[in-house]
Amino acid sequence: MLTVQRVSKTYDGRPLLQHISFTVGSGETVCLLGPSGSGKSTLLRIIGGLEAPEAGAVLWNGVDLTSIPPHARDFGLVFQDYALFPHLNVFENVAFGLRMRRNRWPASSASAFEAALRARVNQVLALVNLRGFETRKVTDLSGGEQQRVALARALAPSPRLLMFDEPLGALDRSLKEELLHELRTILHRTRIPAIYVTHDQEEAFAIADRVLILHEGHIVREGSPAEVWHDPRSPWVARFLGAGNVIEGTMNGRGQVETEFGLFPAQCRHHHAVGERVALLFRQENKRGYPLRLKMTVEDVLFRREGYELHLDKGWIVRHPEPAQPGQTISLIFYVECLGRV
Amino acid sequence: MSIPSERTAEVVERGRRSLYDHIVAQPPRAGHDGRRRQSVLFSLLALIPTLLFLVVFFFLPLGRILALGLEQEAFRLEHVRLLGRVVGFTVFQAALSTLLTFLLGLPAAALFARLEFRGKTLLRALTAVPFLLPTVVVAAGFNALLGPRGLISLLSPWPIVLTGTLTAILLAHVFYNTTIVIRIVGNALTHLDPRLEQAARTLGADSRRVWLHLILPVLRVPLLASGLLVFLFNFTSFGVILLLGGPRFSTLETEIYLQTMQFLNLPAAALLSLFQLLCTLAFSVLYTRLAARSLVPTMPKPSVARPPRHRGERLFVFIMVLLLSVFFLLPLLAIPVRSVLRLEADMGQRGQVRYGLTADYYRELFVNRRGSVFYVPPAEAVRNSLGYAGATVILSLILGLPAASVLIRPTRAARLIDSLLLLPLGASAVTLGLGYVITFSRPLWPGQEAFLTSPLILPLAHTVIALPFVIRTLEPALASIPERLRQAAAALGASPFRVWRTVDWPIVSRAILSSASFAFTVSLGEFGAASLLARPDFPTLPVAIARFLSQPGGLNYGQAMAMSTILMGVALVGIVLLERIRLAGIGEF
Question: Half-sphere exposure of residue B575, counting CA atoms within 13 Å on the CB side?
Fold first, then answer.
């Protein structure tokens, strides 16, 4: 089990990561989700030993890894731009990690090692659907194929942990979905715990058992994709996930929030003092909050695959099964949740 | 921040390399459209003087060597034996020098590419300085340090004398060429995607194996390319071998010189020259093949350098900085120091030990001690050199400007002629000198003196050597003049002259100045051809320095140092000047 304990790091004098703690259990896929610059890649590199934390520790099964160099950590890393070795063909790229760990194999003859190596490389190449690519040059492969080689290369030495740094960021949408599905299958089949870094919530929700949302050096929300989506718990997370329309207001003395749309019952998880700024989330599909009917004016209508996207006055955006005319007034039911302090 | 010599070194190196990779990397050329068209006839007319010049002063002498070298006389058994012996040592010393250059150059390249430390830019510039200095200055520097009258021998408790040994030759070669490795390998290393390395580390490779299994294999093209280039420079090295190795060592270059000047055995010299040319050609072809191969996977980030992190890295930085600054500073500093420092046994008065500062060596430069007609005061060598250099500048500009302005038009003929113009880069200066000795030892017209004795012969040879640099400097500058600027100026009502004056001239003048400085520096420091062609009563500065270095007596030695100081000073001023011109040019286009 991987334990990250109160890891801190500054970048150019500004705190990038502040006391980050979390664990990754066996067979679990944890996704670090955050906007660019949130320090998620740095956190990954700290776990991999490529960078040193300024405070805190990374532990594996309770053993501190801080002084262990990356090559001895046994963590596989997959990069966004693949980082394949240009001087080696597909087979040798995948075999690289096995050759570097030659000493770990039982004292066997060179030929026995080569045979075992060949078997293992062919096995992982089959796993990533690249059988027959052994002698190809990596520079001649497509982006998707290159990323499969990179995955096979990381898988081959059977690492204790797999780390993915925006692995599908450079691929187009359909390829992304295809590879995401394959990756999910492979992770489930191999039961290797994994940390997956991305800024794309759809990717995160598709692959993760658990999502950690990083913002300004802190983990601001943690949970399964469904938990995080249904209960974002902070205005920043709600906005980042695009969960619905977030409006801000001020608590009054009667447990209500005064907003530019009027007065709304707060029904917050925590008690908020009078005069405190509070955010409310208005969305249609999630029935966690209390229902409310609002009349609004349509300003623009966009066609989407899942229906229509209506742009309403005050900048609200809602999904709607039918098209509407700009200028039309429509009546919609929203469910209102309290997101807590702004 | 940019240090002058650093960038100039790049230009010079590119100039030297350009013969080999100009097939791959053509200079920027203007597109077809919009360029002012000139008739083919006009282009040819403009090229005729340049081509004629090259035919008479490059191809003809080379042809004469070829003819002589292929004669039966040249292939006498003793000549072939000589060739075998000389080639053996030439290859041996070149290979050993290359190996040692890499021994220092690779860690230095890694240092500059990977680590950040104070004074890095300055140190990097320092390592590039030797490459730009005349060979005699480098030889004088090592002599002033390690020679029998050198600082270490006379001042330190361990009187080490290394001149006349292979060690001195190797040290000077490493001193000269380390910058090539730093530049080529270092640049590749700087731009190598750091993620490759990180991937290898997470796959279980420690630092040693990252270098062994990733960095060195990935960088094999730049490694081979720089290795070949260093080998080529060592293979054709002349001044260092002659002045630091002494008579015990002979390479192809020095043997050509000896056979020509001492034994007057022109057939043997021609045979050696022929072989030399063949080798250079072979290396060039190899290099071109290599340069055509794809290079290194790069990433857009300009640099991966960072401050040293742990103790091992800090120790590495400390040792390398110390080693590099001592190795590159000491020989350079030794010259001026020795030129004002009177040491034991000077002035030829044995037994009388005198120490102290002195200006005598400089004063003596103006005195003709021997009072002979053929023995002019050394100061005249300075004047001769400046005169030759001036003539070289004028000649190479007269021949280079029309050629360059015609060659920027991208026709197939232009490309062919371009290659032709660059060929002189491939022939060594000594070979060129030999060619002149063979070709011009008779008068051009009956009843005249042999053309070889003409004071013009040396500027002509230097022009052949400088012309490729001059054209290579002028061409991109001329091609960079945007046609749209001309059109805009014309549309605004400027007359053709005004257009030329306001658009072309600012760019052209800078290119002219810059190529003139190149020609000047090349001529000033050139030693190989001058040692064969300079008349005894009109020595150039390098020839005079070499002569004084080889003569006994503390006074001669001191004067050699004084002249070396002057030559080094002028060369450094030239470098800085060149750099100023280049720097000033950047803001404008």
Answer: 26
> Taking the domains of chain A in order of start, what are their residue ranges?
2-230, 242-341
Question: What does the alpha-carbon distance between residue A155 and residue A160 come to, in Å, rounded to a whole number?
Answer: 10
Whether chain B has a CB inside 8 Å of the CB on A195: the answer is no
Domain-embedded: residue B216? yes
Q: How confident is the model at residue A264 (pLDDT cuts 50, 70, 90)?
A: confident
pLDDT average, residue stretch B261-288: 86
The three-state secondary structure class of B315 is helix
Task: State pLDDT tens for residues B343-392.
Answer: 765 444 444 555 677 777 887 777 766 655 556 677 788 888 999 999 99
Tens-place pLDDT, residues B573-587 = 877 777 676 655 443
Residues near B71 by Cβ (< 8 Å), separated by ≥ 6?
A: B267, B270
Q: Kindly report the nearest CA distance between residue B496 and chain A, in angstroms.
A: 52
Min CA distance, B288 vs chain A (Å)? Answer: 21
Helix (H) or strand (E) run with residue A253 in it: none
What is the rounded distance in angstroms from the CA atom of residue A290 to the CA atom of residue A299? 26
Nearest to B217 among A50, A83, A87 (CB): A87
Does residue B36 sit in helix, strand or coil?
A: coil
How many residues belong to chain A?
342
- A221 inside 8 A of chain B by CB: no
Any bridge partners for residue A308, and if so which? A303, A320
ipTM > 0.90? no
Pick one of 3.40.50.720, 3.40.50.300, 3.40.309.10, 3.40.190.80 as the CATH number of A2-230: 3.40.50.300
Closest Cα in chain A to B201: A71
pLDDT digits (tens, 9 = 90+) for B18-56: 433 433 333 334 444 334 445 566 777 778 888 899 999
User: What type of residue is B446?
Assistant: P
